[in-house]
């Protein structure tokens, strides 16, 4: 990325001249988290979840998403990773647990209309990931939810969060909302960052 | 300042938060909304939502994202970890532990 003003990269040869992760860190990234517990309805089979099913699950669990909410999708994927790592001879967990259907226009439209501030999951890419070969029949993004959220409407994505313990607690206590603090590293020019998110109930 | 784009893509919100916005929808995390969010705190219990950063392990999920490397800092040619701060001065009792990390920023949580 090269600055229009100087013709040089601001932070070395590569890096985000605009939209670097440091801005998000400076915001402190704090607000209301809302858990959507896909796993308790869908199980651990790898398949996509689109708008209709997402709405049905939110309806069943009485989950509301309002403007500014930090929406967390619990699929169980990170739980499976952590559980496998605790076994003596860890096997790869493979393609398990649900992912969003990034090709579902109604879903992308809901992300716009709901006003949610960030979309977070415990799976690899929130949507069906590019490491799974996808046949393209026409020109377009291989990760349409990424294009919509990151490129078009400025909704950051959280991936591989560890949501299962919190999701279980919320379910036991009949809640879906919590207080969430999740700043990334204040690293100028970076586009991604680890986070150590804290949920307080 | 020049606008940062020539064509605003269909369905995008570019410019809605100002011409030089750096935060996108994170702008919605206003002081009022943080105050509202605090009302969700009723027990004081915290949950860590990060996986250990050395997971998922290996690079099977994404071949180009490698596990983190954690290394001791090298200080004047010696490993600056679990050793005396100054080997040449036995009067100093300090024990030094200093490490360095190389992290692929999207490897884990």
List keywords for this structure.
heterodimer; A: 201 residues; alpha/beta; two-stranded parallel sheet; 7 helices; 8 strands; 15% strand; globular; B: 109 residues; mainly beta; two-stranded antiparallel ribbon; two-stranded antiparallel sheet; 1 helix; 7 strands
Task: Describe the protein.
The complex is a heterodimer of chains A (201) and B (109). Chain A has one domain. Chain A is 29% helix and 15% strand. By secondary structure, chain B is mainly beta. Chain B is built from 1 helix and 7 strands; from the N terminus they run αβββββββ. A two-stranded antiparallel sheet of chain B has the order 2-7. Chain B has a two-stranded antiparallel ribbon with strand order 3-4. In chain B, a hairpin with a 2-residue loop joins β3 and β4. Chains A and B meet through α1, β1, α4, α6 and α7 of A and α1 and β1 of B. β8 of chain A pairs antiparallel with β1 of chain B, so a sheet runs across the interface.
**DSSP, total strands of chain B:** 7
The secondary-structure class of chain A comes to: alpha/beta
> How far apart are the termini of chain A?
41 Å
**Alpha-beta classification of chain B:** mainly beta
The SSE order of chain A reads HEHEHEHEHEHEHEE
Write down the overall geometry of chain B. elongated
Q: Multimeric state of these chains?
A: heterodimer
Could you give the order of strands across the largest sheet of chain B?
A: 2-7
The averaged pLDDT of chain B comes out at 93
> Average pLDDT value of chain A?
93
Radius of gyration of chain B: 24 Å
């Amino acid at each position: 990325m090269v600055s229009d003003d100087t013709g040089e990269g601001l932070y070395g040869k590569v890096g985000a001249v605009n939209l670097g992760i440091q801005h998000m860190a400076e915001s402190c990234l704090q607000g209301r988290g809302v858990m959507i517990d896909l796993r308790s309805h869908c199980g651990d089979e790898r398949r996509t979840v689109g708008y209709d099913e997402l709405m049905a699950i939110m309806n069943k669990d009485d989950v509301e998403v309002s403007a500014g909410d930090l929406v967390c999708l619990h699929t169980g994927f990170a739980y499976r990773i952590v559980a496998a790592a605790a076994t003596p001879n860890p096997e790869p967990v493979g393609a398990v647990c649900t992912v969003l259907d990034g090709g579902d226009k109604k879903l992308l439209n809901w992300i716009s209309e709901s006003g949610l501030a960030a979309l977070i999951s415990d799976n690899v890419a929130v949507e069906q990931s590019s490491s799974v070969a996808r046949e393209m029949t026409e020109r377009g993004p291989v990760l349409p939810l990424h294009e919509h959220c990151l490129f078009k409407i400025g909704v950051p994505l959280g991936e591989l969060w560890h949501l299962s313990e919190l999701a279980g607690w919320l379910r036991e206590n009949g809640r879906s909302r919590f207080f969430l603090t999740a700043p990334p590293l204040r690293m100028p020019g970076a586009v991604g960052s680890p986070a150590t998110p804290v949920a307080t109930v | 300042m020049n606008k940062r784009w020539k064509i605003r893509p269909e369905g995008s919100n570019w410019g809605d938060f100002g011409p030089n916005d750096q935060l996108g929808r994170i702008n919605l995390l206003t002081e009022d909304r943080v105050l509202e969010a605090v009302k969700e705190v009723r027990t004081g219990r915290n949950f860590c939502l990060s996986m250990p950063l050395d997971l998922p392990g290996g690079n099977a999920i994404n071949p180009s994202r490698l596990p983190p490397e954690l290394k001791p800092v090298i200080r004047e040619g010696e490993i600056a970890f679990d050793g005396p701060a100054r080997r040449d001065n036995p009067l100093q009792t300090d024990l030094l532990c200093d490490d360095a990390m190389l992290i692929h920023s999207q490897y884990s949580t």
